[in-house]
Amino acid sequence: MIPVCRVEDLPEGESVRIEIDGVTPVIAVFHAEGGYYALDDTCSHQDAALSDGWVEGCFVECPLHAALFDLRTGAPACLPARRPVRTHEVSVLDGMIHVRPAVREEAVA
User: Fold this and answer.
1) What pLDDT score does 56 carry?
2) Which residues pair with 59 in a beta bridge?
3) pLDDT under 70 in the chain at which residues?
């Protein structure tokens, strides 16, 4: 688990972007609907940071073309996005938000 920030440092409706290393994709952690959610930070439609998007309910709107993604599942809720973004496990321990990055699936040749 990777520590992200203290719960008081991530207000409802906001996000924080975390870079882990040069291999793991950048992750956006969101506080929405009283919970914490983590997604790959890059929109699956085009290269835009979801952490720069707008949170409404349990959805984030991509700042580039307004695609919506469900924070709980990573699934797109409207076009132009067609592919989901990967989700990551989030937990809160002693007032600190932690993320466990999902294992990256390698393409099979």
Assistant:
1) 95
2) 56, 70
3) 104-109
Tell me the sheet residues that pair with 81.
none
Place of tokens 């979801």: 50
Domains, the chain, ordered by start: 2-100 (2.102.10.10)
- Nearest partner of 7 among 96, 101, 100, judged by Cα: 96
At 22 the pLDDT is 82
HSE-CB for 75 with a 13 A CA cutoff: 3
Q: What is the dihedral of CA 70, 35, 97, 12, to 10 degrees?
A: 90
pTM: 0.91
Question: Can you read off the two tokens belonging to residue 76?
Answer: 């797109």
> What does the block give as tokens for 23?
């291999």
Contact 82, 74 (CB under 8 A): no
Strand, coil or helix: what is 8? helix
For 6-36, the pLDDT digits (tens) are 999 999 999 999 999 888 899 999 999 999 9
